[in-house]
Specification:
Keywords: Amino-acid transport, Cell membrane, Membrane, Transmembrane, Transmembrane helix, Transport. With about 325 residues, the protein is an alpha+beta fold. It has helices at about 1-30, 110-140, 145-160, 165-180, 185-210, 215-220, 225-255, 270-280, 280-315; strands at about 45, 50-55, 60-65, 70-75, 80, 85-90, 95, 100-105, 110. The strands form three sheets. Strands 5-4-3-7 form a four-stranded antiparallel beta sheet, with no helix packed on it. The chain has a three-stranded antiparallel beta sheet with strand order 2-8-6, with no helix packed on it. The longest helix is centred in the last third of the chain and has 33 residues, at about 280-315. The mean pLDDT is about 90.
Length: about 325
């Protein structure tokens, strides 16, 4: 009972700390005399503004019995026919001019921030797939007894980890992209995959080397060759041990994907900059962008935690 009360006490302290932090941020925001306008960000997430039907020229309106709207133009052009609308702004025999609003219909579409979120998710997932493959191959090369493969892997890891990702993105896009005619999206995927693959290679190497050598010897004594022993005995154990650092690296990949905006890929970060230039809601947009990135990383963390619990129960 005492333990339970202490536990609730510490939870209460945590809530108080979070509340005080939020209150402090709120008070700090008041010091900069900024007019918060969160409603200006909503259309850039989900646009629910009605879709207007505009007259394509000067003419007269005819409303048919079936409700369809026809604009007969003055210069005998092909008439404009409108069959679907929710609200009508003209009547039969009205004279309209080019640009007049004839009707409007309800509309729902995703805004540029959601489109940018989808691009970020897509480039992250594709880069993750190739980064794991590159990292697995490079990690196995790192523990190889062949000096050529071992040195090549070491050189790759040291060069990639020793240079900034932003510089690598520029090199891939402007140099390799020019040679191989790579699109922006492809260049971004290549840069992120190669960069993340170097870190995954070290994680896999350390995971494999943490397995006692007797595991490999036992597998070989059962008649398994080296690839089978590695695939069925060593790697599954190494995967469990490397899952937490692997998850951290994958979360870093999602955040690092924001750098591809420098080569004009309209990901979440670039979409945020474009929205700011049109809405001037600087703080609101960046808070929303940060929240969307947080949504992606928390979702990935939750998936990894579920995997960890399932693997722990299978031991």
């Amino acid at each position: 009972m005492l333990r339970t009360s202490n536990r609730w006490l510490w939870h209460g302290i945590f809530v108080v700390i979070v509340a005080l932090s939020i209150f402090g941020i709120y008070q700090a925001s008041k010091q900069i005399n900024y007019n918060w306008q969160w409603e200006r960000v909503t259309p850039f997430l989900f646009d629910t503004s009605p879709l207007e039907v505009i007259a394509a020229g000067d003419g007269s309106v005819v409303i048919n019995d079936d409700g369809s709207l026809v604009v007969n133009f003055d210069y005998d052009d092909q008439p404009q026919v409108v069959t679907q609308y929710d609200e009508l702004f003209v009547a039969d025999s009205d004279i309209v001019f080019e640009g007049d609003v004839l009707a409007q219909s309800e509309n729902w579409s995703v805004g540029p921030l959601i489109v940018g979120l989808w691009v970020t998710l897509k480039i992250s997932v594709i880069s993750l797939f190739f980064a794991v493959i590159i990292g697995l191959v490079a990690g196995l090369m790192r523990i190889s007894n062949n000096p050529v493969t071992k040195n090549l892997s070491f050189l790759y890891v040291e060069i990639i980890r020793g240079t900034p990702l932003l510089v690598q993105i520029f090199i891939v896009y402007f140099f390799l992209g020019t040679i191989f005619d790579l699109e922006r999206f492809t260049a971004g995927v290549v840069a992120l995959s190669v960069f993340t693959g170097a870190y995954i290679a070290e994680i896999i190497r350390s995971g494999i080397q943490s397995i006692p050598p007797g595991q490999m010897e036992a597998a070989r004594s059962l008649g398994m060759n080296y690839p089978k022993a590695m695939a069925y005995v060593i790697l599954p154990q190494a995967f469990k041990r490397t899952l937490p650092p692997m998850a951290g690296q994958l979360i870093t990949l999602i955040k690092d994907s924001s750098l591809v905006s420098v080569i004009s890929i309209t990901d979440l970060t670039k979409a945020g900059r474009e929205v700011i230039s049109g809405s001037f809601a600087t703080f609101e947009v960046w808070f929303v962008v940060a929240g969307l990135y947080l949504l992606l990383t928390i979702s990935l963390s939750w998936v990894v935690q579920r995997i960890e619990k399932r693997l722990a129960s299978s031991d």
